[in-house]
Amino acid sequence: MAELSDGTHEDIQRLCATGDKSAKAKQYPDALQSYWAAWDLLPEPKTEWEAATWILAAVGDANFLSGDYVAGRDNLSQAMHCPNAIGNPFLHLRLGQCQFELQVIDRAADELMRAYMGAGTEIFEDQDPKYLLFLQSKAKAIKPPNKSWQFWK
Predict the structure, then answer these.
(1) Is residue 55 a part of any domain in this protein?
(2) Domain span at residue 110?
């Protein structure tokens, strides 16, 4: 696979770091602007670059955290066409959460199960408990996480 030039790679990393700072401050429109600027630097076909995977992961995460589940679903679905995306527990988690919020229950269960299979219950620890509880309703063998969560009491 071809590699991005050092300058392009550095510009993409800088823009994504700026986006990450904005996302951490819950300034999702600013984060998305930075992430999309990074996306625009990718040569065509964009989905063939490894950087596309993590840029779209960041975009989908910002979409989800801002409550734009349709955009999150669409961007995370596009990310699945990028290198090393299928099997990435975080991508499957966020895509499953977007599907859940959009009431696409079968797809939500599938994606959340992929996240669980890749990372176990630990990937759900910092998430709303409803996602793991939903997954448990579909797969009875899933046990609570090792550490005590307040909602398991």
Answers:
(1) yes
(2) 87-139
